[in-house]
Design a protein that fits this description.
The structure is a homopentamer of 312-residue chains.
Chain A: E1 14-15, H1 16-42, H2 52-78, E2 80-83, E3 86-89, H3 98-116, H4 123-150, H5 157-185, H6 191-208, H7 210-220, H8 225-264, E4 273-275, E5 278-281, E6 284-285, E7 287-288, H9 293-301
Antiparallel strand pairs in A: 1-3, 2-3, 4-5
Chain lengths: 312, 312, 312, 312, 312
């Protein structure tokens, strides 16, 4: 096919305006991710231990994506040199799409953890679901990467289509599994948290839909500087929505469910919980306990249980 | 118009003195933002959970602005080369205004969050107001950016004026909405916190007024090295006032309101609150609670509610 | 032997595709380590003081490995220059295997600490075991390094074999000692934590097996670009499994054992513990104590015991 | 005047030994500031909320000064090239004095906050004093900067003298105001804290005296490489004394006064306080409170007070 | 003397193998310091306020040494260029010994603080001892630095010997003072903590002995590439032992003494203390206090005592 005789998508000679738009889209997404990373880092104790795995997933993926955008920004900056009125790509420009796939191979599995940890699936069922959705998310990215970047440098339309379809299989499984978990969880929580969980799911799954659309651009069109701009801006916007927008909604679900647990008396939380200036639950300290010297001594006396050669 | 045949504003050949003034203005603003970032990071627990979203907004925007100034400083340093007694701009100098807009597109929406979170608007009304003011702030920046940077590289006076006016519409909405929220909130709080909130609002909204003035410079004057210096110093000073000055006042409101809530008995806070060496409230621990085994067991027994395949 | 007349393994002229695969493997492993570092940093208080040395070991080794991968990525990026369709190595490429050994000489001893700290061995026995396994791990790496990197730049098959065998002696000791400690500990803990400890041990020891296989490549085959790619990808994947995968399982053991201790009444922990959304233990605060003025005064009165020239 | 025909003070061709002394002075001061920054960051909770603004000022200014020294070190390193046995300055060397003024314009006002926050001035009087001393400190630096760096590149002796005198006016106000505040505070505190406050004030104000002496060097002497070395080493040493030495003494005052407040029963502090291994006060937890549902409901029912569209 | 006609010690033309050994020794020491820095940062609350100055000293010195090794690694990397089979030094290689002295001038005084803070010397005696040992440590480094680096670039054997002897005087004082403090403290603590304190002292003082040995190398031998390698590896190993090894032992003393204080009833500590899986003390919360309104009002009413223009 003719359109695949052109250079790889990322190596376009860019006019000034489009070059600047991509650079600033990368910077803007990086700034948004930095802000969200700091938010999830500093607000993580507003959520009880039950839902905190969701916050951990959010902050880890925010950090990875933030570093990825720092690399993308720096590779875009160093990867093109101004000759007259156009920016000509060099060796460093070759990573400006590939780095995204590596980022996603870590962050998309973590997004499924972030969502599932505020659902009500528990125990072995939760572990299985987490394992299979993380696996599907990882394979979805890796197979998409093989089609678009590795095989013939993304210039072979057949590879793009075949690997795109394989990737889609994992994509479909992910949708079905996540929607199932969310649906089963909605009746177990309060109205406001259920509404936020529904919104979070919609935001995540609809922003996921942007990626295959951008992926398919080189199948249907010659990649021109304008198309590359569209790809970079589209990916950046989708990353912000799927990570920052989704993350803020998920955090809200976790906070509201913490308050529900405290009110229901099944959890303690040392701080009151407020949401949009409305009081949701009081702070509740755990009870004061007493370490049992007898049990402790038994632990230290039992050398064949592996403990206890140095009792106090 | 003649004055738009000159190069884009950021590509001036700068004499030594003016070049140094801009470089040091960028550095000074970056230092002030670094100090403020660390202050909001380390002091965030002086404020109760109710008003903490204000602190989170403040620290996230401080971090973004601080990184933006680090980039501006480094681009200004690398973007000019000394030839004899003048600094001649190169390719890296092209970002020294555009990076500001990207910074603002993230930080100005967060400034509205910072202010609203110490007001008394609550619940759905608060969420709507937050959403619309963040949107208006974002669009105010993006449209200003289109006029001044993207279209004809900011050299088309008509574009500057038209997009400037569109930007102004969002600007006006923002003023009206924020002033309304502050006015409604002032009677709900103590005298000292109300005074600080009033000051914070005045500082924010008046420093916002500097931006359109600087924006309008290229409409009324040829951008000379002196004007570029005025623009860069003006933006830097306005950023410090609107972020650091405003943030310190907002933090004070949040702290004083926390003390008022503790004194009124509607909130607990583990630390005493002092302001300017005056004692405002005692520390108050939350009550000790008890997790209810019956309710907990019910949660774990209810598999169709999504939980409970592994009861303890 | 002929195959050792070729250049050192790390100085291959790499075709585009293989070069990219290595670069992205390094980046992906670095991202995974960054995420895991942040996870162990922020989740460290979910574990009681008893098992926290395991978390400390995990987060310290994650940081070291993360920095090592940042160096590997940057050396790989700067260490090759694109000439036509191939990447030609330069001076900076010389560290892209050696840096790994330095990383391992710090991180592998810490991995044994991470495992032993969730076992039940205690007191002097624990200190001895920790000391000998850390020593064996360190010597295993150093002797492997001598054989593969220092002596004749890894091109002397005899050295590779001899030092490989010496390294194997430490390797065998490590296996025997760690398996012994784990076996003695399994009966002392609950079913779920024992299962996770078993899994963690299997993950660690089986991923350790990858390293000698990769080490042996230059003994049995000419190091071609494809083999170098296999080595770099193999090491990166093994590092992720042995550090991140193992670390998450170890953290789970530590969390579940904390809950067991709280339930048994031999420890306090200020937070409830939940695992996969299942409640494992309530939060328990320590008792309120009283400082004894008489004892304290005695301390301050006893100048020849070194204290007390300034009693209050 | 003849001596002002020589190049600006910072552009000296430096012999090897003097060049090295400056480089290592910059590095040593940077190391001391890094250590002090980490100390104030990690020890900040040893001080009660009353005096914590002092710690915040100290850690923010330490961070700014630390970054300033990192820039000075890097500009000094890149700003000179070895030609034979001498280091010849280039463009990057131009910032190696100016960066100091920008640092001081942020850090000197914060030093006054650090001192005043452990004094006993309170309320409106404290706010006024803080405002005027911060302003005087800022203007003292800015006017000194105008004289020594901006006007005629610091080669005009008249400007040096005139602006130096203006700067001195602010300097004198600062001394008078700070000494007044300290004097008024000494009788309100214990003997040991008063002694430390006196020492801290002496350290701060006497190290401040070094700056005008160094400033005056170019008025009285040709700036030779030896004089530049004296200036850089003098400024570095004064910065370490005025920031690190002063900060450690201030921290001690804040800690001792916290203990005094706890012993007097006017404050709670969750940790015992020890100073130089001597017990100063017990830890005291705040009382357990109870959120009043009636008051809370009133807040949420009062829509015209701005709160309460979503009562729980 | 002939051997001093050769170039300064740090400017050797290095063969491949020795160059790599130094580079990896610098990297390995840097990694160990990074791990130890994170350990002391995250474990600092395992120690009570009484002994925490020891932890603060340890983490501050670890950070300084870590940054120093990052500079050494980067200067070593950039300071030599590969010409054929040898690495030829350039301008950047000149710091690769000097940076060590600057590091030590900050870190060695902090090492004495780290040790003294777990001894039992208290009050004025402790302050004097800390002051004189910090001073002696600082002067020991500075005089050694003068002899080996500044005067004649370390090529004058007489200067080496004379300044080495002066440095030794401070060295001897340090030994005597520290051993005295440790000896006086051993009887005041439990058996296990005393054993660890003894070990820590031996580790510190014996590793200190390595430095004069390395320092003396250029007096007795021509500095060849092999000797430079021995110097760099010797210093790196001594730094790891004296900082990391010593620090871990000191931390153990601090932890065990905290447990002793809690058991004796003279201190509270919110967490149980375990060491090598053996339970040493329960967690003990401080008592709940009550702020006295009368005393507080008196403070606020006393304007001439400096407080109270704004009573609540």
């Amino acid at each position: 096919m003719d359109r695949f005789d052109t250079p790889t998508p990322e190596l376009q000679t860019m006019p000034l305006g489009l070059y600047d738009v991509v650079q600033l889209a990368l910077l803007g997404a990086g700034f948004a991710l930095l802000a969200y990373f700091l938010y999830s880092l500093t607000s993580r104790n507003e959520v009880s231990a039950r839902y905190r795995p969701s916050v951990f997933a959010g902050l880890c993926l925010a950090a990875v994506a933030m570093v990825a955008y720092a690399l993308l920004y720096s590779d875009w900056d160093a990867g093109f040199t101004l000759h007259g009125d156009v920016y000509v790509p060099n060796e460093e420009a070759r990573n400006t799409l590939g780095t995204r796939y590596i980022d996603w191979s870590v962050t998309v599995p973590l997004l499924t953890v972030e969502l599932l940890a505020v659902c009500s699936v528990a125990g072995a069922k939760a572990r299985n679901l987490r394992f299979t959705t993380m696996g599907a998310a990882f394979l979805m990215i890796v197979t998409g990467y093989l089609g678009s970047q590795v095989l013939s440098d993304g210039r072979d339309a057949t590879a793009l289509v075949v690997w795109g379809l394989i990737s889609t299989v994992f994509f479909v499984y992910l949708y079905v599994a996540l929607i199932g978990a969310v649906r089963a969880s909605l009746p177990t929580m309060g109205e406001e948290s259920a509404a936020s969980l529904r919104n979070a799911t919609i935001v995540l799954l609809s922003s996921f839909g942007v990626y295959p659309l951008v992926y398919a651009i080189p199948v249907f069109a010659d990649v021109t500087p304008a198309w590359l701009t569209a790809m970079q801006v589209g990916y950046s916007a989708a990353d912000v929505v799927a990570k920052v927008g989704f993350g803020i909604l998920t955090h809200k679900v976790a906070k509201l469910r913490t308050a529900e647990d405290v009110v229901a008396g099944i959890d303690t939380h040392p701080e009151p919980i407020w949401s949009s200036n409305v009081h949701k639950s009081d702070g509740v300290l755990p009870e004061v306990g007493r370490v049992s010297p007898a049990v402790l001594a038994a632990v230290h006396r039992a050398p064949d249980r592996g403990a206890g050669t140095d009792p106090v």
